[in-house]
Design a protein that fits this description.
The chain has a two-stranded antiparallel sheet. Strand 1 and strand 2 form a beta hairpin. It has 243 residues and is mainly α. The longest helix is centred in the C-terminal third of the chain and has 17 residues. It has ten helices and two strands. It is 47% helix and 10% strand. It has one domain. It starts with 28 loop residues before the first helix and ends in an 11-residue tail after the last helix.
Length: 243
């Protein structure tokens, strides 16, 4: 099991994933035009990214008009890791089956946690059942587009976390499942899109992953992320603050 790091902490290491956008040339037309439409990524690894189109608007003074060009922001997925022994058992059980973390199946296969899950999700149980049915429809009934419904349900559930059951038993299952769904849809060439706040969150996790792995800052990614944020959240001055 990969041990990249807990999502929001890494002992002894500074967190550098918040970038100083003032140093980026997002208003430099020549700089923007020079950006590749897509980044260079090995074909075998493309499925590990959520891809968001970003439309860049240029003003052409000589012609007194605006021109538009589409670039693609590739956001590398970063999976959470279990933070206690119980979470490790749950993660391992689903990873072995190559299945998303389904709380409904946890109820059936880890009955010792049944009361805690019901207490935490009694108002959301219908949504969890709908996601579970979508997983089954895709993986057992050969209906891959059903995963789109599961993806959107996990986006909604993420806004309600953390619950006591996720802290003690499930771990960060919504992030794990969002990543799982994106990979599955990529593999099956099924178009999908995420909410702006989810994309903002994935961008932050992308930066954390790069920091944990001590990678250099990717200027193309940062420029397109800044443009995306300006378009999605035009009145938000605090870029990608704590989620």
């Amino acid at each position: 099991m990969s041990k990249l790091a807990p999502m929001h902490q890494r002992a002894g290491r500074p967190q550098k994933y918040k970038v100083d956008y003032s140093s980026l040339a997002i208003n430099d037309v020549n700089k923007l035009k020079s950006l590749s439409v897509i980044p260079f990524i090995e074909e075998s690894k493309i499925g590990e990214y959520y891809i968001e189109p970003v439309v860049i608007e240029y003003y052409i003074p000589k012609e007194s008009r605006f021109a538009h060009e589409k670039k693609f922001l590739y956001i590398e997925l970063y999976d959470p890791v279990p933070l206690n022994e119980t979470q490790e058992k749950v993660f391992a059980w689903f990873k072995e089956k190559k299945y998303p973390i389904d709380p409904i199946l946890v109820l059936k296969n880890f009955p010792e946690h049944k009361d805690l899950l019901f207490e935490s999700y009694f108002l959301s149980m219908d949504m969890l059942k709908s996601a579970s049915e979508a997983y089954q429809s895709a993986l057992e009934d050969n209906n891959p587009t059903a995963i789109k419904s599961a993806l959107y349900i996990n986006e909604v559930m993420r806004k309600k976390e953390p619950k006591l059951a996720s802290l003690k038993v499930l771990g960060d299952y919504t992030t794990y499942n969002i990543n799982w769904c994106v990979r599955y849809l990529n593999k099956n060439n099924i178009e999908h899109s995420l909410e702006d706040k989810t994309i903002e969150y994935l961008i932050k996790l992308h930066r954390i992953k790069h920091e944990v792995e001590e990678r250099a800052i990717d200027e193309r990614f940062e420029i397109l992320s800044a443009i995306y944020h300006e378009q999605a959240f035009p009145f938000d001055d605090d870029y990608f603050d704590e989620d």
